[in-house]
Amino acid sequence: MNGKDVTSLLNGTELLAILSDQERERLAEGVSATSFPKGSRIVAGQGCAGILFVRKGRLRVYLVSEKGRDITLYFIEPGEICVLSASCVISAIAFQVEIEAEEDTEAIRIAGDVYAALQKNNLRLENYTLRLTVDRFNDVMWSMQQLLFFNMDQRIATYLYDECGKRGTTELLATHESIARSIGSAREVVSRVLKQFARENIVVVGRGKITVLDERKLAEKIDQI
């Protein structure tokens, strides 16, 4: 698949609408279709991975402590763009993030130097990038708020409630380990809270699956501050 074919996959997106025909031709020189198997890591902190547009699957953006513990900042869903993967585009960002494929993921990669050159001469594209960055920092602040001010019941209830909304279903394919990784906790702690939720008839816990029985009770858990 050549650059123009890959660029055509962006038809209908705000990104492509911002660019002139000449800029689209320049973009085609720096795009490629890529895929990431579930669990694969995209190391963004030590280099410029480019701008990633997710077509299918899901990417997890997270921070890792010196002791190896990680905390999820946010997820990139289909139709969304990851800008923090391109440190060469947003040089003011001083911290390092890591990215991994939460699911088998198909994406379009835009080379960082190509995107940076387009942005330099296109104020609308620069504003678009800034807006994406601000939106993501809102997600980061929400994650930090949960980490600092929510108890474990609230954090797990928030995760389950948000996942139901994003997935459009109350049957979530998630393990205790994946939830622990997402909220920056230990698997044993997650297991203990889920058992309590099950006793309260809020969820049913199965092998690799959690079924939410009562979203209202989950919301009440979140509001117990």
How do the strands and helices of this protein lay out in sequence?
Elements: H1 3-8, H2 14-18, H3 21-28, E1 31-36, E2 41-43, E3 51-56, E4 59-64, E5 70-76, E6 81-82, E7 98-101, E8 105-110, H4 112-120, H5 123-149, H6 152-167, E9 171-172, H7 176-183, H8 187-199, E10 203-206, E11 209-212, H9 215-222
Antiparallel strand pairs: 1-8, 2-7, 3-6, 3-8, 4-5, 4-7, 9-11, 10-11
Structure description:
By secondary structure, this protein is of the alpha+beta class. The protein folds into two domains: 3-145, Jelly Rolls; 150-222, Arc Repressor Mutant, subunit A (Orthogonal Bundle), CATH 1.10.10.10. The protein has nine helices and eleven strands. The chain has helices spanning 3-8, 14-18, 21-28, 112-120, 123-149, 152-167, 176-183, 187-199, 215-222; strands at residues 31-36, 41-43, 51-56, 59-64, 70-76, 81-82, 98-101, 105-110, 171-172, 203-206, 209-212. A four-stranded antiparallel beta sheet has the order 1-8-3-6. The protein has a four-stranded antiparallel beta sheet with strand order 2-7-4-5. Helix 6 (152-167) packs across helix 9 (215-222) and helix 7 (176-183) packs across helix 8. It starts with a helix and ends with a helix. The relative contact order is 0.13. The model has no long low-confidence stretch (mean pLDDT 88). InterPro entries: cNMP-bd_dom, cNMP-bd_dom_sf, Env_Response_Regulators, HTH_CRP, RmlC-like_jellyroll, WH-like_DNA-bd_sf, WH_DNA-bd_sf. It comes from Candidatus Stercoripulliclostridium merdipullorum. This is Crp/Fnr family transcriptional regulator.
